[in-house]
Amino acid sequence: MIKSLARRWNQYKYRFVPWLAANINESSPRIVETVQLDKLISDEDVEQQLNILFSKFGSNHDVNSQAVLDLCGFRINRKPSLLEDGGIGVFVDAGLVKSGTVVAIYPGAVYQPWEPVFLISLRNSYLFRCADSVHIDGKDKGLSRMMYNSFARRDSLRGQLMCDNSWQTEYPLNPLAVGQYVNNQSNKFSANVAYQEFDVPAKFPSHLRKYIPNTEARLHQDMEQSMFNRLLRMVVLVSIRDIHPGEELFSTYFTIVSKPS
Ligand SMILES: C[S@@+](CC[C@H](N)C(=O)[O-])C[C@H]1O[C@@H](n2cnc3c(N)ncnc32)[C@H](O)[C@@H]1O
Prior knowledge:
The chain is an alpha/beta fold. It is 22% helix and 24% strand. Strand 7 (127-129) and strand 8 (135-137) form a beta hairpin.
């Protein structure tokens, strides 16, 4: 009995633990058989979409927003949510997002399962948990911000950052790096995007890494490896249907894995 309860508990993959704990009754889960099957589009497709887009990016938010519009056919922006008490949300403000498109990226520092997240989790509603317990801290203020910037500086090469830290500002260089502001679906608005975990392959062009809004925490020295030889976890938000201008993006904050390995 206890074993079966524990197994069921482990099947629940809460994306944002504290908020869901308080609002569990209002949240319908996304149910998938296995984490490997929880892919709306292939990893190759994610990589290709990012690669093509990043190669059009420059050093200005507006120019890059226009590049997203020209290439992908949509533009997204943050503004007050349609939900009462929903704070800020993310909206499609021009064009059309076709189903199966990478529409946003979840920015932040990546913590491996064995790295402590207790301190940064305090009063933090932006700590995203992946199915394998990797965490991504998408908070753009306070300790989280300081930590991200210090990891980014540590990994810089000849003064050049190997990741993007402008997601912490109002005008991120990578206009898709606002996934941390996407709200959970509600009774009124059902999910139109889903999280997809993606490991950036070592072959990803090094000159485009400066547009990736993620960096590894790597708190332990023994985890040190050449940054081009390891995979970097990213979480992208993929549209599950066509999304029209004026619509807010909504995801599902928790996933149930029905056949855990
Ligand atoms: C990852 S943040 C999303 C961005 C947030 N709206 C903001 O303004 O910073 C998660 C927080 O958003 C709010 N939130 C998300 N979905 C919501 C919903 N369906 N209804 C009300 N609040 C929601 C909760 O405060 C939650 O802790």
